[in-house]
């Protein structure tokens, strides 16, 4: 098997940045913007969204601090939404909330949050007669970092989806793109790298999906599929409610996936299944997986979890990226209250 860079640079080191009761939650979103980890939404008690505040953890290496922002005109409290960062703001679409915990229907509106201004903006479609994605929860999102916010799959009021939509945040317009390969799913993961979207994992209503990476080429608007052995040796096991992140390591662009739920709970969203605690890197150009064994820090390493969120801290220049992991659900069905950084 070809090795793209020395193994020791792939190992990684865990560092805990924060841990407190306010940060305890699952099914939330995490976005890193300008050295700040922004956390919104989620639940501590099943089917009870926490509130509409944004929690911010700084990435100051000497003394990371945590503050809670109570912004005006915030979106309604929700769980199971998904976020992505474009320039200096995060973007979210829909989620689940309200008394009935139904998908939050906002007629195609997208919310953006700027930590610099500590303010939310509701971006309603410019053409109210144009098609827009149906409301949903436990979908997945990513962006091209410039102007396009992608929304994929998830759970509407009934069933699951496999659709892909692109929202131009400047034009405030939705474009429906070709559907991803079957099966329809919730709890999938998607990442953007070099003009392509990479989709994997999820739960199809009966079992976790694994063993393939579906690739959407934004220039040709076509899907293709790469398969691998999802055996925990040659590639990561099937899972859902995990994370897939585009990272630069050793001057190469890669994908990183970690953690997630392997076997669903019989209680659905009210219970916890079998959680994973592994970390994998995928070499995009050479198309192979390698499992990492990060070093524990002074506070140990993150517990196995699913229903969490994660994002990337960009390295300077051609330096290695880092990964932020927050919260989620542990195997004992408790909500986790920690923020970790995986540094390379």
UniProtKB/TrEMBL annotation:
Region Disordered: start-end pairs: 60-79
Sorted UniProt keywords: Iron, Repeat
Membrane-spanning ranges: none
Signal peptide: none
Comp. bias intervals (Polar residues): 64-75
Cross-referenced SUPFAM superfamilies: Kelch motif (SSF117281)
Gene Ontology biological-process entries: glucosinolate metabolic process
Alphabetical list of PANTHER family matching this protein: KELCH REPEAT PROTEIN (AFU_ORTHOLOGUE AFUA_5G12780)
Name of the featured protein: Galactose oxidase
């Amino acid at each position: 098997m070809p090795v793209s860079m020395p193994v020791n640079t792939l190992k990684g080191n865990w560092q805990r940045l924060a841990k407190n009761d306010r940060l305890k939650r699952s099914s939330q979103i995490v976005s890193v913007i300008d050295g700040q980890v922004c956390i919104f939404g989620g639940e501590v008690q099943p089917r009870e969204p926490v509130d509409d505040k944004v929690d911010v953890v700084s990435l100051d290496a000497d003394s990371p601090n945590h503050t809670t922002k109570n912004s005006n005109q915030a979106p309604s409290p929700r769980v199971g939404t998904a976020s992505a960062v474009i320039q200096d703001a995060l973007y979210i679409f829909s989620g689940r909330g309200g008394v009935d915990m139904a998908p939050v229907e906002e007629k195609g509106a997208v919310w953006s949050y700027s930590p610099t201004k500590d303010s939310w903006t509701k971006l309603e479609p410019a053409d109210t007669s144009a098609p827009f994605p149906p409301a949903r929860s436990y979908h997945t999102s990513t962006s091209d970092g410039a102007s396009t916010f992608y929304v994929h799959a998830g759970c509407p009021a009934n069933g699951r989806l496999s659709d892909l939509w692109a929202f131009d945040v400047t034009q405030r317009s939705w474009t429906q793109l070709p559907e991803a390969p079957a099966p329809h799913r919730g709890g999938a993961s998607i990442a953007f790298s070099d003009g392509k979207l990479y989709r994997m994992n999820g739960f199809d209503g009966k079992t976790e999906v694994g063993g393939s990476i579906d690739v959407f080429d934004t220039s040709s608007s076509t899907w293709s599929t790469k398969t691998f052995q999802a055996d925990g040796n040659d590639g990561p096991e099937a899972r859902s409610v995990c994370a897939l992140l585009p990272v630069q390591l050793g001057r190469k662009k890669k994908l990183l996936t970690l953690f997630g739920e392997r076997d669903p709970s019989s209680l659905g969203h009210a219970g916890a299944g079998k959680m994973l605690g592994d970390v994998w890197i995928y070499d995009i150009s050479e198309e192979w997986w390698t499992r990492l064994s990060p070093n524990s820090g002074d506070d140990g390493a993150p517990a196995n979890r699913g229903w969490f969120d994660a994002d990337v801290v960009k390295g300077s220049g051609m330096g290695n990226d880092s990964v932020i992991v927050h919260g989620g659900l542990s195997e004992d069905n408790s909500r986790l209250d920690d923020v970790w950084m995986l540094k390379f």
